[in-house]
Structures are given as C-alpha cells and as structure tokens.
Specification:
The complex is a heterodimer.
Chain A lengths: L2 E5 L2 E4 L5 E8 L5 E7 L5 E9 L2 E4 L5 E7 L2 E6 L8 E8 L9 E2 L3 E5 L1
Chain B lengths: L3 E2 L4 E5 L4 E7 L6 E7 L6 E7 L4 E4 L2 E6 L4 E6 L8 E8 L8 E3 L3 E6 L1
Parallel strand pairs in B: 2-11
Antiparallel strand pairs in B: 1-3, 3-8, 4-5, 4-9, 6-7, 7-8, 9-10, 9-11
Classes of the chains: A mainly beta, B mainly beta.
Chain lengths: 114, 114
C-alpha cells in the first residue's frame, strides 16, 4: 500500500533562518507531488506541484522553493524565513497522469517563525 | 483570485439532523470535485468525489451534489454525528491536458452538537 511521510512534524525557526521540509512517498512510482500551506484562518493554498523529477510548477510567488531530486521525494526550502511563512505545511501525492483521482496527504508540518 | 469558495466559515448542526456544506467555483474548466475532512494538526482525509458528468454521488451517509450551470456543489451528511465535527474542504481539478492542480476552498468548520 502507498504511504506518504513528511518531516519534521513541528519546527520553530527564527526570522531569517533557512528551512527544509522533506516528503517521501512509498508504494507507488512516478507520482504527482504537491506542497500546500494552511495559514491560520485560511484554506489550503497550493504552493508547488511536480509531475516529474526536476519539474516544479510554482503557484504563489514568495521566498519558498521546491525541489524533486528523486522520483518520490519532494523538498520545500527557504533561504530566509519570514514571519508570514508560519503555517501548517502539507505534502500530497496523486496518481501520475490523472487529475480525476484522490489527492493523498501527509501528516503535515507545523512551522512557527518567531 | 479565489477560484473555489466556501462562503460559510462555520456551521452548527444537531446530532441526527442533516448537515449541508456548500461550495462555489468560478473556473468552468474544472470537471472533478472532491470533499475532504480535516482535524486540527492532521492531514486532510478524502471523503467523496464527483465527476462533472454526474450530478450526484453517494457513499453511505455522504452525498455530493453538483450543479454545473450554477457552478455549485454541496455535501450532505445524513445523519450527522458528533464525530463528524471537523473542518471540511471542497476542492476542484481539471482543465487542459497536463493541468494537475487541485484547488481548495477556505473550509467550513462543522460542529455537530450532541
């Protein structure tokens, strides 16, 4: 069966520090991968999605970036965090080549920027 | 530009009664719609979906209705149970070939009163 893991689960970082959140998917190959953010009182905002290794589409201009170094690995990064980067970050995957299917989410990572 | 909207941030319903959650979208290219349930500090879990070729899909206590002409969908939960208390998100996907984005609404917090 397929599973998705993301870490760390919680992170408290000072403003201006770097960020790295990791996500891996097991039990499937060549998935579509996604990063979402849920800010306080807001919905799920799509940040990045990837349909293949090295292929990243950015949805929201900001100081975050994403990379997909391996087929089932998706990384969210920042060189310098802002207060507004605080939120609940969610990695997700879907079956390759389909947009009429479920999106499967990880457990989420809570980021607090102080 | 909020392409998927949930205009009711919260809803309270008595146990055993019907819960109706609403969602509107603006992009006529969307042709697949999903509902997710989310508890605090957890990833969303899939509930039910509907393709644009249908106007109704049922799964146990959950029914989703789609009105394409009005660009409106709704989730009915009958009967509502206290365990249904959570935040519910609707999502939409579809469009030109190669578009694999899932766009989420802002969520509706459902509280089922015992």
């Amino acid at each position: 069966s397929q599973t998705i893991h993301q870490w760390p689960a919680t992170l408290v970082q000072p403003v201006g520090s770097p960020l790295s959140l990791e996500c891996t998917v097991e039990g499937t190959s060549n998935p579509n991968l996604y990063w979402y953010r849920q800010a306080a009182g807001r919905g799920l905002q799509l940040l990045f999605y990837s349909v293949g290794i090295g292929q990243i589409s950015s949805e929201v201009p900001q100081n975050l970036s994403a990379s997909r170094p391996q087929d089932r690995q998706f990384i969210l990064s920042s060189k310098k965090l802002l207060l507004s980067d605080s939120g609940f970050y969610l990695c997700a995957w879907s079956v390759k080549g389909r947009y009429t299917g479920e999106l499967f989410f990880g457990e989420g990572s809570r980021l607090t920027v102080l | 530009d909020q392409q998927v909207k949930q205009n009711s941030p919260s809803l309270s319903v008595q146990e055993g009664r019907i819960s109706i959650l609403n969602c509107d979208y603006t992009n006529s290219m969307f042709d697949y719609f999903l509902w997710y349930k989310k508890y605090p500090a957890e990833g969303p879990t899939f509930l039910i979906s509907i393709s644009s070729i249908k106007d109704k899909n049922e799964d146990g206590r959950f029914t989703v209705f789609l009105n394409k002409s009005a660009k409106h969908l709704s989730l009915h939960i009958v009967p509502s149970q206290p365990g249904d208390s959570a935040v519910y998100f609707c999502a939409a996907s579809g469009g030109p070939s190669g578009t694999y984005k899932y766009i989420f609404g802002t969520g509706t917090r459902l509280k089922v009163l015992a």
